[in-house]
């Protein structure tokens, strides 16, 4: 495919699985030159198909077929079938070199919600097979409503070293910038709190998390009544840190790829799990993670604009100590352990904290006291604290 405009002479079939459309399983790709292909539709149940015809690229047309006219088997390249599809002449189709741009109206995908996954497979007669990769591609529906931001924090970059000396695990999956916040924003949309986390690197998924989030764990601690000294003081399991003076969290959100959680504090000082189901959308190449939480049903109501937020990042590890699901940071880095920590047991296992001013993170995360006992009995007053951010300081 080294032609100046190869798509003018190439047919491309795009098979979509939209969650709001009735699924219809296809056992094989269309006929090619009168013969059935052996390629199977692995991992996708077709709800729509779009057939780009290279010779019609200049007039910008393609065919789109939905359940009522997409057969369960047979050729989609025969003229008798193609004319039964819905022909769209207005959708934009353009090409530049080896790249093809095809804009699909959202209305054709049915009713979509934030976080919905649209699977797709591509078939090209240039390869007589699926376009790689062998697994289905996936698109996630972003937050499309009008989010009214009340908080937008830019975090200093190149400060993914915790209290000042931490280093990444040695394995190559932990690429530079994986634990470095660039920013954090929060807003309200249709009764939901929408939080955006910007990370310096792309968000990789080397271990195949269903939420496209394998490497990072992000915690958000919400103090609804800052200064009243209510709520839970200590942060989550094995974080080895606490809320700042006068503060305690009412809600703790754990954002990770396999076991996300929302916890709420109880009057007894303990906490209980609210849910492990909420919307997480990852835009991998942009290094963006978006979380959407129902304010009434998942966060107990109230006005998020009046709350204070503690936002920290750890290294995700499904085999982390004490069921914590985060990686330890040790004095010396190992393949799957961070390094650069002092030789004490009560240092935080935290790589980065959201706060706009340089140096504040290091000051807070190094504020733990001298302790030589067991990790199971660290007194709260000997833990480091974290800074919080809010709409009104």
Write the layout of secondary structure elements.
Elements: E1 12-17, E2 31-32, E3 35-36, E4 48-52, E5 62-65, H1 79-82, E6 86-88, E7 93-96, E8 99-102, E9 117-124, E10 129-130, E11 137-140, E12 148-154, E13 181-189, E14 192-199, E15 216-223, E16 241-242, E17 251-255, E18 261-265, E19 271-275, E20 279-283, E21 288-294, H2 295-299, E22 308-315, E23 352-353, H3 360-365, E24 384-385, E25 389-390
Parallel strand pairs: 16-24
Antiparallel strand pairs: 1-4, 1-9, 2-3, 4-5, 5-6, 7-8, 9-10, 9-11, 12-13, 13-14, 14-21, 15-17, 15-22, 17-18, 18-19, 20-21, 22-23, 22-25
What is the oligomer described by this structure? single chain
Order of helices and strands: EEEEEHEEEEEEEEEEEEEEEEHEEHEE
Query: What profile does the largest beta sheet have?
Result: 7 strands, antiparallel
- Give the tally of β-strands: 25
| Second-tier CATH architecture of the largest domain | Sandwich
Radius of gyration: 25 Å
Which topology of the largest domain does CATH recognise?
Answer: Immunoglobulin-like
**Secondary-structure-derived class:** mainly beta
User: Can you tell me the overall shape?
Assistant: globular
Q: Could you list the spans in which at least 5 consecutive residues all have pLDDT below 50?
A: 24-42, 56-91
Helical percent range?
A: under 10%
């Amino acid at each position: 495919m080294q032609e100046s405009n190869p798509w003018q002479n190439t047919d491309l079939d795009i098979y979509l699985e939209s969650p709001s459309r009735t699924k219809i399983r296809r056992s094989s790709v269309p006929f090619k030159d009168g013969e059935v292909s052996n390629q199977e539709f692995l991992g996708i149940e077709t709800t729509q198909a779009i057939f780009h015809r290279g010779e019609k690229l200049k007039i910008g047309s393609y065919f789109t077929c939905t359940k009522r006219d997409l057969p369960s088997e047979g050729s989609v390249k025969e003229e008798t079938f193609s004319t039964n599809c819905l022909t769209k002449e207005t959708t934009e189709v353009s090409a530049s070199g080896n790249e093809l741009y095809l804009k699909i109206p959202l209305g054709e995908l049915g009713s979509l919600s934030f976080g919905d996954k649209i699977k797709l497979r591509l078939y090209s007669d240039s390869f007589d097979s699926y376009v790689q990769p062998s697994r289905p591609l996936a698109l996630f529906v972003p937050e499309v409503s009008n989010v009214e931001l009340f908080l937008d924090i830019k975090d200093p970059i190149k400060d993914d070293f915790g209290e000042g000396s931490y280093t990444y695990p040695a394995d190559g999956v932990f690429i530079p910038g994986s634990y470095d916040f660039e920013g954090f924003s929060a807003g309200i949309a249709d009764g939901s709190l929408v939080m955006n986390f910007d990370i310096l690197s792309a968000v990789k998924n080397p271990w195949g998390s269903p939420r496209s989030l394998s490497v990072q764990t992000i915690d958000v601690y919400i103090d609804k009544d800052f200064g009243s000294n209510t709520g839970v003081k200590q942060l989550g399991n094995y974080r080895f840190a606490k809320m700042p003076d006068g503060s305690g969290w009412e809600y703790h959100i754990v954002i990770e790829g396999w076991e996300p959680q929302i916890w709420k504090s109880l009057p007894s000082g303990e906490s209980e799990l609210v849910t492990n189901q909420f919307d997480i959308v990852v835009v991998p190449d942009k290094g963006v993670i978006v979380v959407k939480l129902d304010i009434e049903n998942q966060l107990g109501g109230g006005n998020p604009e009046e709350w204070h937020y503690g936002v920290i990042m750890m290294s995700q590890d499904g085999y982390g100590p004490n069921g914590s699901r985060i990686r330890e940071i040790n004095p010396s880095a190992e393949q799957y352990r961070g390094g650069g920590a002092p030789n004490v047991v009560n240092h935080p296992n935290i790589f980065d904290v959201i706060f706009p001013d340089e140096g504040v993170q290091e000051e807070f995360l190094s504020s733990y006291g001298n302790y030589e006992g067991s990790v199971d009995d660290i007194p709260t007053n000997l833990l480091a604290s974290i800074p919080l951010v809010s709409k009104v300081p």
